[in-house]
């Protein structure tokens, strides 16, 4: 099951306790479904959980039944239809919409005065027209509607709730979306999906941990490459001093250091310093090796 499907399933587990919230959730679903007009309502969903919730939601909100519902056990895209004029009139009256006077939909903010109703409205909009990407891949949550004014007013509603969404268009739909993980977390919690928000937080923490490990490995690999290059330069410098007959004339400490480096070209400075008799510090050994390299270039 995808992250989006799991999120919608979690949202649908919430009880339909208040009628005002049921109406607000249904309102969000209607404004973000496939079609909501004077001609009828058409809701299409692939979410099994949302398909099971819709009949209960409309019964609680409006005391109506769909004129057409998916057959029991139906899979894929499930279609719900409302075409009865009396039932449609009940929906329109609930939200103060007169299809004879208004062609374009607007959000009736009077229906969403309470915070719990706004949360229910967001939930309905997401269930009908929302999507969220698996946070292990990237961060993206969107709400898509065919109503221009609804999209603009949804942005204003979200801003009032403390969010900063962005807007775009895709074909004939108007998209309100988030790409910041913190905003998506907050919106999931606002809608009533704390487990999905926790899943996003865990995915983000895992990404941060993997990124930290990768950076450390890359850093250590880079340091190892530098150490290998430095050791090769030192061995080449010592060989050059030996060919020129200079090595034998150097102080004993430098000769001993040169011999240790030639015999152990793969050891780090710390490991090489421990082999000295008596042992010396890494800084001391590094100083001696730099001296050998300088002498080879003089």
Number of DSSP E strands: 7
The strand order across the widest sheet is: 4-5-7-6
Rounded to an integer, what's the Rg over CA atoms? 34 Å
Our measurement of the CA-to-CA distance between the termini, rounded to an integer number of angstroms, reads 70 Å
CATH architecture of the largest domain: Roll
The number of domains: 2
β-strand amount: 5-15%
User: Could you say which overall geometry the principal axes of the C-alpha atoms support?
Assistant: rod-shaped
Per CATH, what is the topology of the largest domain? Endonuclease I-creI
Order of helices and strands: HHEEHEHHEEHEEHHHHH
Note down, in words, how this protein is organized.
- The protein has two domains: 3-207, Homing endonucleases (Endonuclease I-creI); 220-297, no CATH class.
- The radius of gyration is 34 Å and the shape is rod-shaped.
- A hairpin with a 2-residue loop joins strand 6 and strand 7 (173-178).
- The strands form two sheets. A four-stranded antiparallel beta sheet has the order 4-5-7-6. A three-stranded antiparallel beta sheet has the order 1-2-3.
- Helix 2 (19-31) crosses helix 3 and helix 8 packs across helix 11.
- It starts with a helix and ends with a helix.
- It has eleven helices and seven strands.
- It is an alpha+beta fold and 298 residues long.
């Amino acid at each position: 099951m995808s992250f989006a499907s799991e999120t919608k399933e979690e949202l649908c587990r919430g009880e339909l306790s208040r009628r005002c919230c049921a109406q607000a959730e249904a309102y969000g679903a209607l404004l973000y479904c496939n079609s909501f007009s004077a001609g009828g309502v058409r809701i299409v969903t692939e979410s099994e959980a949302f398909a099971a919730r819709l009949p209960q939601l409309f019964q609680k909100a409006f005391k109506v039944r769909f004129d057409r519902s998916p057959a029991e056990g139906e899979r894929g895209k499930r279609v719900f239809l409302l075409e009865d004029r009396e039932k449609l009139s009940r929906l329109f009256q609930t939200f103060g919409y007169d299809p004879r006077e208004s062609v374009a939909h607007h959000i009736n903010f009077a229906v969403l005065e309470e915070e719990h109703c706004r949360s229910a409205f967001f939930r309905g909009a997401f269930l009908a027209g929302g999507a969220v990407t698996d946070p292990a891949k990237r961060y993206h949550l969107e709400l898509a509607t065919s109503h221009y004014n609804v999209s603009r007013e949804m942005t204003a509603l979200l801003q009032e709730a403390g969010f900063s969404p962005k807007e775009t268009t895709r074909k004939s739909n108007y998209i309100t979306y988030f790409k910041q993980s913190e905003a998506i977390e907050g919106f999931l919690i606002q809608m009533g999906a704390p487990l999905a928000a926790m899943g996003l937080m865990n995915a983000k923490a895992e990404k941060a941990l993997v990124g930290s490990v990768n950076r450390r490995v890359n850093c250590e690999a880079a340091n190892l490459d530098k150490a290998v290059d430095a050791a090769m330069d030192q061995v080449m410098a010592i060989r050059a001093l030996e060919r020129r007959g200079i090595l034998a004339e150097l102080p004993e400490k430098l000769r001993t250091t040169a011999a240790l480096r030639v015999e152990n070209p793969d050891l780090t400075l710390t490991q090489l310093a421990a082999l000295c008799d008596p042992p010396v510090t890494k800084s001391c050994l590094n100083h001696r090796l730099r001296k050998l390299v300088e002498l080879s270039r003089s």
